[in-house]
Each structure stands twice: as structure tokens, then as C-alpha cells.
Design the sequence.
């Protein structure tokens, strides 16, 4: 069976890659977290694209679950960020080195 | 659908997931009790949680081991032999942690109600993750477990190390979830919109070959990367030593054991789905193979230089994840060995959980000095003979010396490698185990041979529940080695 890769899937993969590179390069926790959200949304885009091109409208519903989960995660993550900020007045990931010998 | 049939299915699904629901109920009761009870009654919280876990164990074993896989919620969750055994291990772990926690929590700024409730939520999430048999359910349960642990790891107030551990696990855990989700997207696309494992299996081995093999392989690869973070496989293990060192000890024990039990159960179901699918490019399996090899090598070599017992156990857990991956690599090419792989993994997850929990139980009983450098363990053989003996037993079992569970677990795993024709996996595994003797025995030698530092005090006495839990775990290290049929029949 001939199968065309939808163009939007390529866009999704590129966004995912940008997010993954961002996690490795950026220093402050907020930007890293934004990169993670970027990766989640890339996956969302991929899901919606595929659901549409495969003619399975129910696949679109997945993004609702993913966004809910991402919101829950953001709530916990921001709480941790605030806790760290209270301790040391910055949230640069590289300066978190208490646990390195 | 006929409404009667629909309701019958809902009831059936709820019955199959009843152990999870019992834990959920217990967690909510704990939270409510924490708010409603007078402040002096805090001591009741571990008892309520313990009763909840005991009730879940009772309900689970009341159902008995299922002869054939039983599906719940239209195939989103499955209860089969492996998940039944994993659930028992996870609930046992939860009971153990609840027993050792009160003593460890004393004098620390940890909100008790939230702590016990989250432990129960974590146990529930682990069981749910292991039972997942649908891709979306897999993602949701994966995240449920992760989010619980972000909070649990950072739960200690005014302890910057605990917060840092929570933060690091948060960054790594959400990255892992993103990889997992992208993997799901590709598997979904490759199989033309299938998400249930059964349907994917059917699509894979359909003669018409509608599945895109490259896209499927990419998806499976990303899924394994996501799990690699969760079960600390080698290139994705960087966070583990820091998180293990900084996190609250009982929580780290849950992270090291229960999370892996759940992760391996879920991974086994994924691999069982794809086992024997020929069209996948060879490079993917080579990468899988390399991950197992590097986990065994990095874990064992990295542990040699660690100055702290919790960091040492982090590297040890990386190595043991590598060993536990062996059956999964083997069955990919030889789906005929699936039954044997299930047995080997089921036994090793019990063995690994028992010995690691024993070690963490002793560490928590020696807190806070036991959580420091290994040098502070000097002379414990005389200062705290029972705890030193239990730690020595845990170390001996982790090395894999008979007649302990660690030995028989490794025997099954390396036996699988030889049976599957992967001699090199067995050779590297055995060589890595030889290296592991040096660092495990270093702990034992420090306890029994080294002179304690000037002014080292006798560590505080253990609580009754703690003695009972650690003693039972120590006994089980022998019992399940000699009578393995007590566990998997």
C-alpha cells in the first residue's frame, strides 16, 4: 500500500527536534521547561495530522489528554521552581550542583 | 452497543481494577484524615495507609492469578500473569515503605498526610503503568507515576537537596514523557491508527503488510528511549545518582524498585507486542543491544568510585536494569521464548526489589549519618550488628552469591541470554558481576573491618515496625531463593 507522509508530520518532527536541542543548550529552568512543552505540542501536532490523514477523527481527542497532563505537570514543576527560587534567588539549572561531589 | 452488555463490561472492568481503586480510596481517606483528625493522632496515618495496602493485597489475591490475560476498559488495561506478580511486588513494597517511614520521618519537615497519600498514589500509578495495554493509557499512567514522584522527591521542606532531586527528576521525567509521546505518535501512524496492543499485534503480522516498518521502528525506538529514562538504562541514566542521593530515602527506595517493576512490566508488554516482527531494520535492534551492554558496563564501573551508599545503589540499579533487559533483547528475535522471558523478568523483579529494599531499609534506619559517605559506616558491625548484618546480606545478594534470590535471578537471566544465542550478553553480564564484587564488598568491609571515627556514636534504636519490615525482607531473600514456587507457582 502506498503511504504518503503528511507534510505536517515533518513540521512536528522539526518542532520536536528544536525542543530537544533547546533542553540541552538552554540554561535557565523556565526556558528548558518551555522546550519540553514544545516537544509535547509537537507530538500533539503529529497526532492531529495523522488522525486527519488516516481518517480517524477520534485520534484528535488525544491532544485533550496531553494538554491536561501537561498542565498538571506545569503546576508541579512551577511549584518546584518557586521552591528553588526561594532558596537561591535564581533558577539556572547549571548552578544546581549540591548533589555533585 | 446493548446497554446491558455495556454495564456488564463496566462492572467487569471495575472488578479487575479493584486493587487500584482500593488504593485510591485509601489515599483519599488518608488525605481526609490528615485534615479532620486532631493533630495528636498523626500516628494513625501509617496504620490507615498500611490497612489500605493490605486490603488491596487481599482483593488482588482474592481474584487469584489469571489463567489467561483479562482486559479491562475496552482493552486499555490488562491483568495477566506478569502484571499479577508485579502488582504483588509493588504492594509488598508499599507495605514495607509504610513500615519504615514513620521512624525516618521523625524530626523532618515533611507533611505526613500528603506523604502517605502520595506513596499510595505512587503504588497505584505503578500498578496502572504495568497493566497498560493501550498506548494512550500507557502515556497517562507513565505521567501519573512521574508527577507523583516529582512531588514526593521534593517533599522535604527546607532541604535544598530534596528540592534539587525533585527538580532534576522533573526535567528528566518530562523529557522522557515527551519522547514516549512522540514514539506513540509514530506507532499510531505506522499501524494506521491502532492504539491497542492487541490490534497493533494483529496489524503487524497481517499478511497484507499494511504497517510502515521504518516508522514503526522509529516509534518503538522513541518509546524505549522514554522508558530508558524511567528505568535508568545507560545513556539515559545521568540524573539517577543525583536524584537518589538527594531524595528522601524511602521515596528513593520506591523509585529504585517499584518504578522499575512497573516500567519493566510495561516494557515487556510492548516488546511482546513487537516480538518476531521481521521487517524492522537491523540497526534498531543493534541499538537496543548496545543499550543493554552499556547499562551493565556503565552501572558497574561507575559504582566503583562512588563515595556515598545511595549513589552507589543508583549505579547498582543502572547495572541491574541492564541485566533485566537481557530477556527482552532475546525475545525480540525469538518470540518462542516469551514464556521463559516472562518467568525470568517476574522472578528478577522480585529478587531485585527484595534486596534493594533491604539495603534502603537499613540506610533509612541509620539516617541521617547512614545517608552520608561510606566512611561513616565504619565499625557498624559492632555499633549496630543487626543492621550491619542485613546490609551485608543485601550486598551479598546484589552480587549474586547463593543461596540468595540475587543468585537465582541472575542464573535465569544469563540462562536466557545463552538459550537465545546471545553469548556475549551473558559474558559481559558475568564479567560485570565480577566487577560489582569490589564495590558491594567495600561496604561490607567498611562495616566490619574499618575502625569507627573518633566520637562515632551508637546509631539510634530502630522502631518495632522497622525491625519487623527489615527482618522480613532479609528472611524473604532466602525464602524466595529456596522456595521460588511460593512466588510464581
Sequence:
Amino acid at each position: 500500500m502506498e503511504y504518503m507522509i503528511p507534510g505536517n508530520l515533518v513540521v512536528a518532527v522539526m518542532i520536536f527536534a528544536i525542543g530537544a536541542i533547546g533542553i540541552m543548550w538552554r540554561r535557565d529552568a523556565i526556558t528548558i521547561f518551555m522546550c519540553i512543552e514544545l516537544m509535547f505540542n509537537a507530538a500533539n501536532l503529529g497526532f492531529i495530522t495523522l488522525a486527519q490523514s488516516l481518517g480517524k477523527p477520534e485520534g484528535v481527542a488525544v491532544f485533550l489528554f496531553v494538554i491536561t497532563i501537561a498542565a498538571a505537570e506545569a503546576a508541579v514543576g512551577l511549584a518546584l521552581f518557586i521552591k528553588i527560587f526561594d532558596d537561591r534567588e535564581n533558577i539556572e539549572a547549571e548552578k544546581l550542583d549540591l548533589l555533585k561531589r | 452497543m446493548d446497554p446491558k452488555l455495556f454495564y456488564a463490561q463496566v462492572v467487569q472492568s471495575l472488578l479487575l481494577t479493584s486493587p487500584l481503586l482500593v488504593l485510591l480510596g485509601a489515599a483519599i481517606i488518608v488525605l481526609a484524615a490528615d485534615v479532620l483528625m486532631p493533630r495528636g493522632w498523626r500516628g494513625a496515618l501509617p496504620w490507615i495507609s498500611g490497612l489500605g495496602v493490605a486490603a488491596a493485597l487481599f482483593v488482588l489475591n482474592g481474584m487469584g492469578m489469571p489463567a489467561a490475560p483479562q482486559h479491562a476498559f475496552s482493552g486499555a488495561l490488562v491483568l495477566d500473569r506478569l502484571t499479577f506478580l508485579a502488582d504483588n511486588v509493588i504492594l509488598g513494597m508499599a507495605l514495607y515503605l509504610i513500615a519504615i517511614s514513620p521512624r525516618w520521618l521523625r524530626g523532618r519537615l515533611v507533611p505526613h498526610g500528603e506523604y502517605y497519600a502520595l506513596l499510595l498514589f505512587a503504588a497505584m500509578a505503578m500498578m496502572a503503568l504495568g497493566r497498560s495495554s493501550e498506548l494512550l493509557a500507557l502515556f497517562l499512567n507513565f505521567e501519573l507515576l512521574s508527577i507523583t514522584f516529582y512531588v514526593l522527591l521534593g517533599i522535604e521542606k527546607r532541604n535544598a537537596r530534596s528540592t534539587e532531586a525533585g527538580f532534576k527528576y522533573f526535567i528528566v521525567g518530562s523529557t522522557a514523557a515527551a519522547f514516549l509521546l512522540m514514539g506513540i505518535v509514530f506507532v499510531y501512524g505506522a499501524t494506521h491508527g491502532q492504539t491497542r496492543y492487541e490490534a497493533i499485534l494483529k496489524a503487524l503480522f497481517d499478511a497484507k503488510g499494511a504497517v510502515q516498518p521504518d516508522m514503526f521502528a522509529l516509534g518503538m525506538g522513541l518509546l524505549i528511549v522514554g522508558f530508558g529514562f524511567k528505568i535508568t538504562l545507560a545513556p539515559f541514566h545521568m540524573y539517577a545518582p543525583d536524584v537518589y542521593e538527594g531524595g528522601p530515602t524511602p521515596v528513593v527506595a520506591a523509585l529504585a524498585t517499584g518504578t522499575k517493576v512497573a516500567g519493566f512490566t510495561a516494557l515487556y508488554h510492548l516488546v511482546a507486542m513487537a516480538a518476531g516482527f521481521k521487517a524492522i531494520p537491523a540497526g534498531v535492534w543493534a541499538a537496543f543491544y548496545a543499550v543493554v551492554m552499556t547499562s551493565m558496563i556503565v552501572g558497574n564501573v561507575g559504582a566503583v568510585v562512588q563515595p556515598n551508599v545511595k549513589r552507589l545503589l543508583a549505579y547498582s540499579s543502572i547495572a541491574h536494569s541492564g541485566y533485566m533487559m537481557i530477556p527482552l533483547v532475546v525475545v525480540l528475535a525469538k518470540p518462542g521464548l516469551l514464556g521463559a522471558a516472562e518467568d525470568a523478568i517476574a522472578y528478577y523483579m522480585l529478587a531485585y526489589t527484595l534486596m534493594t529494599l533491604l539495603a534502603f531499609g537499613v540506610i533509612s534506619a541509620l539516617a541521617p549519618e547512614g545517608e552520608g559517605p561510606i566512611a561513616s559506616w565504619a565499625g557498624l558491625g559492632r555499633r549496630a550488628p543487626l543492621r550491619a548484618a542485613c546490609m551485608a546480606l543485601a550486598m551479598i545478594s546484589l552480587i549474586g552469591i547463593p543461596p540468595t534470590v540475587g543468585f537465582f535471578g541472575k542464573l535465569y537471566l544469563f540462562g536466557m541470554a545463552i538459550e537465545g544465542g546471545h553469548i556475549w550478553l551473558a559474558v559481559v553480564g558475568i564479567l560485570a558481576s565480577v566487577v560489582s564484587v569490589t564495590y558491594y564488598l567495600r561496604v561490607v568491609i567498611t562495616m566490619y573491618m574499618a575502625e569507627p571515627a573518633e566520637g562515632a556514636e551508637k546509631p539510634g534504636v530502630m522502631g518495632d515496625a522497622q525491625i519487623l519490615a527489615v527482618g522480613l525482607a532479609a528472611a524473604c531473600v532466602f525464602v524466595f531463593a529456596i522456595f521460588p514456587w511460593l512466588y510464581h507457582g
Remarks:
- Chain B has a mean pLDDT of 92.
